Amino acid sequence: MAANYYQTKESVQEYIQLAKDVNGGELIKKLKEFLPSNSTLLEIGSGPGTDWTILNADYEVVGSDNSQEFLNYLKSKNPAGKFLELDAVTLSTSEKFDGIYSNKVLHHLKDEELSSSIKKQAALLNSNGIICHSFWKGEGTEIFKGLFVNYHSETGLKVFFDPYFEILLLESYAEFEKGDSLLLIGRKK
Length: 189
Ligand SMILES: C[S@@+](CC[C@H](N)C(=O)[O-])C[C@H]1O[C@@H](n2cnc3c(N)ncnc32)[C@H](O)[C@@H]1O
Description:
31% strand, binds S-adenosylmethionine
């Protein structure tokens, strides 16, 4: 399997097909309990834009990805949308946001990269800014379809986020099977 699964036209098309029936609608309902409509929101790793479309109905959303293939696809499907080429670790933008969202993206970061990302997210948020991120729940790491996957536990995520965020919600949910995923919502300290 290609090491750059999210970067080639063929594998991006394959991912779009595989993921066509999956979306973060339930996660976004929870986000709405904490982040008011019309807030500015950065999505990290927008991929095919399924969640971006749902978020765009309520928020001033800016999509992003580090894959040029996904960015080309997003821009062609949403010509009026705003998209940035951003890596989840460095998040090199001078824009500020009220919220930051990702759905099954940050598990691609190694522990030290996740720590850098969290610190940068806090810097990009306005005061009392909200984060909403999902992860695969479990232990250890693996390579899946050539991609690094870092599994997390509730306790482990608390340690990562606690220095910068008050945790408002941290719960497991089913993406494919009971308890395979974790949702974390936090407020900037
Ligand atoms: C599971 S998909 C996300 C799907 C998206 N939530 C949706 O609604 O369709 C993961 C996305 O994260 C992106 N990604 C992976 N690692 C990244 C990184 N370090 N920085 C930015 N984006 C990344 C991939 O290119 C891919 O588009």
